[in-house]
Amino acid sequence: MEKIVNRLIKVGFSKTEAIIYITLLRIGKANGYRLAKELELSKSTIYQSLETMYRNGYILLIPNSSKEYEAKNPELLFEEIERLFFENSLNLKRDLKKIENPIKENYFYKLEDNEKIKATLKNIIKNSKKEIYLNTDFDLQEIREDLKNAIDRGVRVIAFCFNKLDNMGLRIEIYHKSKEKESFKNPSRIMLVADLNKSLVVTKVGDKISGFYTDNQVFINIISEHIHSDIYMAKLAQIYEETFNEKIKIDTLHEKRNFIV
């Protein structure tokens, strides 16, 4: 009984209306006086609920009776409820679209769970259409199939790592600065841009991993420029001489901590 009442409430009945409807199904036709006595509720509550239920088409008024009601056939009733719900949903969707503000704020999602980060990364790759830029020292084997599917769809994948990465037999354009092969022992970053409209940045310090996922265009441009600059620097270092790094340094704290010779 309680389960049925709760289900009726979920489709628009009040609790009292749900109890009255079930009672009418059980005992057949009844007037307000009998229902009030049967359910031990006030007559005013019963009469008010009956009027609402009759207006909504949940119950039928028996002709030539002293205000006796009966429950509408459940199959017929819920066919009508389903039809009205569907029509109202379509109309509501259309009407809400008319008042929706076309200028939306950018989203910034903070991610701290490893599985959520991995799921977000895979989802971005899955929905990419043209280009993916990657700067990472994480092992790409974990997303090999996702990258393969993207490449098979015609997506261009460009990856940078300071040390050498394996292309895993895929058509990935890989750039690196060091001749040493990446060991993946202490991965620290993922910077990704897809189609110049989505960006994911992940950092790992010790055992703590966190990330930001955004469609903010300024942020996306910054990450894209960063990845491109790393690739340009790597290519210039290969074209010119071994002392390239020393010639371009500007002696900052950032260089002392991060510059890879």
Topology:
Elements (H helix, E strand, L loop, with lengths): L1 H9 L4 H13 L2 E2 H8 L3 H14 L2 E3 L6 E4 L2 H26 L8 E4 L2 H14 L3 E6 L7 H9 L3 E6 L10 E5 L12 E6 L3 E8 L2 E7 L2 H23 L4 H5 L4 H6 L3
Parallel strand pairs: 5-6, 6-7
Antiparallel strand pairs: 1-3, 2-3, 4-10, 5-8, 8-9, 9-10
Helix pairs in contact: 1-2, 3-4, 6-7
Index terms:
single chain, 10 strands, alpha+beta, 7-stranded mixed beta sheet
The total of beta strands comes to 10
Which spans of ≥5 residues are poorly predicted at pLDDT below 50? none
Distance between the termini: 75 Å
Query: Would you tell me the overall average pLDDT?
Result: 90
Order of helices and strands: HHEHHEEHEHEHEEEEEHHH
What's the helical proportion of residues? 40-55%
- What order do the strands of the largest sheet run in, or round the barrel if closed? 4-10-9-8-5-6-7
Taken from the alpha-carbon principal axes, the silhouette is rod-shaped
The assigned structural class equals alpha+beta
Hey, roughly how much beta strand do the residues contain? 15-25%
Radius of gyration: 33 Å
**How many separate helices?**
10
How would a textbook summarize the main sheet? 7 strands, mixed
